[in-house]
Write a structure and sequence with these properties.
Radius of gyration: 22 Å
Number of strands: 0
Number of helices: 17
Structural class: mainly alpha
Distance between the termini: 37 Å
Strand content: under 5%
Shape: globular
Oligomer: single chain
Order of helices and strands: HHHHHHHHHHHHHHHHH
Length: 281
């Protein structure tokens, strides 16, 4: 669900309804935290709490939106599993990326996808996990400073991932970055101590390696300072709110297996559709 769609949803259900729903979510969160401390014999009680939270969320968001969030979170988790070596590392990276998304007021999906793409090229880039997280932060800040939404810059983010994974930055990729995220292109040039025109000429000549490009962004200190001057907006607050709900829905789904059961039911219907149609007819 895009931020614009979320905004329409908020207007449709009314601010009072959202307030009541979120208050109920907070109450359920506290109850779930208490239940999480229970012994193994109280696992069923915990699942009941999670089911209650799912019902509360359903009051504020449509079923289709909730399912979409659950699917999105499952996909993000699957991508991170590929980029991490253990359950402990997965949990640590998930937590760090969520904090980055909230601090920079950008969609969690964009942050996670960006990190996942870069992580696949970490060895070639000579970057450790901490470097990847810092790079993700700077790129997210450059998005905000550029005044570009993650949705509008999705193509450029994909090109950036390709540029960092190809070994050399190609002109097509750089042009996409320059157009959608001009502050990021300038950050790379500043990190190299040159102008964006000089950087573009070097890219055209095939003289900018992926490693040098990534390191130049990491070396830039100006983007963070500029980001700090950007005021928090309603759009940014809505993005943070959606990130909260996305994570909550994803974790509820992981604990209850709700979408897995729904998917199994759909598979059953699909595999037995001729018989079902025959019975109905």
């Amino acid at each position: 669900m895009e931020v614009g769609a979320l905004n329409l949803t908020l207007r449709a259900i009314g601010a009072d309804a959202v307030g009541r729903a979120m208050a109920a979510v907070r109450r359920e969160l506290k109850a779930t935290a208490d239940a999480a401390k229970a012994t193994d014999g109280q696992v069923s009680a915990l699942k009941n709490q999670l089911t209650g939270m799912a019902a509360t969320l359903g009051a504020a968001f449509g079923a289709q939106q909730i399912v979409g969030m659950a699917d999105s979170y499952a996909t993000l988790t699957a991508r991170l599993k590929i980029a991490t070596g253990s359950a402990e590392e997965l949990a640590r990276v998930q937590g760090a990326l969520f904090q980055i998304a909230q601090d920079q007021r950008v969609p969690l999906e964009a942050v996670t996808d960006l990190y996942g793409r870069m992580a696949l090229s970490a060895d070639a880039l000579g970057l450790q996990q901490a470097d990847l997280l810092r790079l993700t932060t700077t790129i997210s800040q450059a998005l905000v400073v550029s005044g570009t939404s993650a949705e509008a810059a999705s193509g450029a983010l994909m090109q950036l991932g390709q540029a960092l994974g190809a070994g050399i930055v190609r002109a097509e990729e750089y042009n996409s970055i320059q157009e959608a995220m001009p502050r990021l292109a300038r950050a790379a040039a500043e990190g190299m101590g040159i102008t964006t025109t000089e950087l573009r000429n070097m890219v055209i000549a095939g003289k900018v390696s992926s490693q040098a490009f990534a390191q130049a962004i990491l070396d830039n200190q100006k983007v963070a300072a500029e980001f700090a001057t950007i005021p928090r907006t309603i759009g940014g607050a809505l993005t943070q709110f959606r990130n909260d709900i996305l994570q909550l829905v994803g974790r509820i789904n992981e604990s209850t297996g709700a979408t897995q059961r729904f998917t199994q039911a759909l598979d059953f219907v699909r595999q037995n559709l001729p018989q079902i149609v025959g019975i109905i007819a």
